[in-house]
Write a structure and sequence with these properties.
Blueprint lengths: L1 H11 L1 H10 L1 H16 L3 H4 L9 H7 L5 H12 L12 E6 L10 E5 H20 L8 E4 L7 E2 L5 E3 L1 H6 L2 H10 L4 H5 L3 H14 L4 E8 H24 L9 H8 L7 H11 L7 H5 L5 E5 L8 H8 L4 E2 L2 E3 L4 E4 L12 E3 L5 E9 L8 E3 L4 E2 L8 E7 L7 E13 L2 E9 L2 E5 L2 E4 H12 L7 E11 L6 E10 L10 H14 L2 H9 L6 E5 L3 H11 L16 H9 L1 E6 L2 H10 L1
Parallel strand pairs: 1-5, 3-6, 6-7, 7-8, 21-22
Antiparallel strand pairs: 1-2, 4-5, 9-10, 10-11, 11-17, 12-13, 12-14, 12-15, 15-16, 16-17, 18-19, 20-21, 22-23
Helix pairs in contact: 11-12, 12-14, 12-16, 17-18, 18-22
Family: Belongs to the IAA-amido conjugating enzyme family.
Keywords: Coiled coil, Ligase
Pfam families: GH3, GH3_C, GH3_M
């Protein structure tokens, strides 16, 4: 009951709460660090940095090192193996949050406490308030929210570890409020078979199509997956609706029971309507046609998810794409106070009450082109960041992360009251490397964004991409994998060699000075572009899910490190093209 009262107060006073938070950002950050040190300075990890016992901000910044997950992992492993969590933080551990492992290359175990969960929950409620404020009437309908679960695992000490959404979907706060806003019964969300879960969630969404006012998922990759699933299964979904019988292959007891309460009888009129929509040769705007009252699509579309923007805009047919918040397994960072911003223009306002933030200045060289980044100077507080400057975010939490490098590069775009607003660029990590050349995730994303513009006049869409450094021969080369489709259908486009070679050339021309110099000197071979058949990146997602990744948290790998993953895409290749040296050198001389 107390929790319900607290939630009601947040919703009633949400905008005032935001004003108070952002007007007092500096003071709240100071209080946050003081509280973290007050509670945790006596832990084994932190106490060694305060030999005099003086655990204040000055000694914290002077003595406590800036670290990565690998530096903290030995302590997390000790807790997982049975030692008390007080070696790292004072509060009792609830469980571990398991990251997807697809962006950084490894799964991480991040501790969560009751208080860190409360801060995350608070963050979600504020996001919901801000988003709904921009759209009239979302409280009057439901959300088709595509959420999925993964099996929980236990560490040797018996502590549960799972993806955040699996943990959150089992909490009372989620389940008690679920029926009020979500079309998907909890049983379909908790189903551990992703295929059965997706089928049942889409089926319930179609059965309640006149109530759906928003479509949502955590990441845009899930919505891209859902549209592909809909293309493959709309006939079977229509058959279920027409006959009133659930497909025999849905055998999960929870799904069967939940669907028996929703799929209560034949509805041939609805089935005919959905069939008519899905039989259209072009699926442009299909989301709006299937759910006519939908007001917005809510999903994180920034960073590595930006590759799905054009796809969602195509299927959405003008429905606003809202990228609501900036979160990670480690912490909640900020929210988008301008939900109607174009996806590429989104900035996140940092909330000062979720963690203590520092920012490592990042040097960005070169006249606007994607360049190598490097950190420089000492970190600054949230109150001292500068407009237009680039930073890598460092976080300190109540749950055992101290001066922890998240790896994300941000740009300060403005301020809301006294709280800075950041544009999320990319992870700092280098994804491609040959010789002395290093290409970051941001470099690659910008280069591909430039190249795909060549395809648009021909009605060709780039729906997914990845890459790897091929050093099997000397000199080595960068290899790109692209999945393409025609705007009007799922047909594979006719691959014109000249156009594809021009795409290769534009990617190379968009890279930095070091790449161009090494390419010109013959130390790097021509970039190779491999086009794969429709659905190949779904197979890649299935591969990572089979290895433990969560479909809800899945981030498509910008660069492939796994030989098995490379084999999956190579086996689906339908064409390959190289950047002609003459074209590249011509572009280089013109630049």
């Amino acid at each position: 009951m107390a929790g319900e009262i607290e939630i009601k107060e947040i919703y009633e006073n949400g905008m005032k709460i935001l004003e108070d938070l952002t007007n007092n950002a500096h003071e709240l950050q100071e209080q946050m660090l003081e509280e973290i040190l007050r509670r945790n300075a006596g832990t084994e990890y932190l106490s060694r940095f305060f030999p005099s016992g003086q655990a204040d901000k000055l000694n914290f910044k002077t003595n406590v090192p800036i670290v990565t997950y690998e530096d903290t992992k030995p302590y997390i492993d000790r807790i997982a193996n049975g030692e008390t969590s007080s070696i790292l933080f004072a509060d009792p551990i609830i469980q571990f949050i398991r990251s997807s492992g697809t962006s950084g290359g490894q799964q991480k175990l991040i501790p969560i406490t009751a208080e860190s969960f409360e801060k995350g929950k608070y963050h979600l409620f504020l996001v919901d308030i801000v988003t709904k404020k921009c759209f009239s009437g979302p409280d009057e309908g439901k959300s088709l929210s595509l959420y999925f679960s993964k099996p929980e695992i236990e560490t040797p000490s018996g502590i549960v570890a799972s993806p955040y959404l699996t943990f959150y979907s089992k909490t009372d706060i989620f389940q008690s409020n679920l029926a009020k806003f979500c079309t998907s019964p909890i049983e379909t969300i908790l189903c551990l078979d992703n295929k059965q879960s997706m089928f049942c969630q889409l089926l319930t969404g179609l059965l309640q199509r006149d109530e759906v006012v928003q479509l949502s998922s955590i990441f845009a990759s899930v919505l891209a997956r859902a549209t592909k699933f809909l293309e493959d299964y709309w006939r079977e979904l229509c058959c279920n609706i027409r006959t009133g019988y659930l497909s025999d292959w849905i055998i999960d007891p929870g799904c069967k029971n939940a669907m028996s309460l929703i799929l209560t009888g034949p509805n041939p009129e609805l089935a005919d309507l959905i069939q008519q929509i899905c039989e259209d040769k072009s699926w442009e705007g299909v989301i709006k046609k299937l759910w006519p009252k939908i007001k917005y699509i809510s999903s994180i579309c920034t960073g590595s998810m930006s590759q799905y923007i054009s796809l969602l805009e195509f299927y959405g047919g003008g429905i606003p794409l809202v990228s609501p918040s900036y979160v990670s397994s480690e912490a909640c960072f900020g929210i988008n106070l301008q939900p109607l911003s174009k996806p590429f223009d989104v900035s996140y306002t940092f909330l000062p009450n979720t963690a203590y933030f520092e920012f490592l200045p990042v040097n960005k060289d070169g006249g606007g082109k994607a360049q190598e980044t490097r950190t420089m100077d000492k970190p600054v507080d949230l109150a001292n960041v500068k407009l237009g400057q680039f930073y890598e975010v460092v976080v300190t939490t109540l749950a055992g992360l101290y001066r922890y490098r998240v790896g994300d590069v941000l740009k300060v775009t403005g301020f809301y009251n006294k709280s800075p607003q950041f544009q999320f660029l990319e992870r700092q990590n280098v994804v491609l490397s040959i010789d002395t050349e290093k290409t970051t995730e941001e470099d690659l994303s910008k280069a591909i964004t430039n190249a795909k513009l060549i395809l648009e006049p021909f009605g060709i869409m780039l729906t997914a991409y990845s890459s790897y450094s091929d050093t099997s021969s000397i000199p080595g080369r960068y290899v790109l994998f692209w999945e393409l489709k025609m705007k009007g259908s799922n047909d594979l486009p006719k691959l014109d060699a000249k156009i594809m070679e021009e795409c290769c050339c534009i990617v190379e021309e968009s890279f930095g000075f070091t790449y161009k110099a090494l390419r010109k000197g013959g130390a790097i071979s021509a970039l190779e572009l491999r086009v794969v058949k429709h659905g190949s990146f779904d197979e890649l997602m299935d591969f990572y899910i089979s290895k433990g990744a969560s479909i809800t948290q899945y981030k498509p790998p910008c660069c492939l490190k796994s030989e098995d993953a490379i084999k999956i895409l190579n086996s689906a290749m339908v064409g390959k093209f190289f950047s002609p040296k003459t074209m590249f050198l011509s572009a280089l001389s013109e630049g």
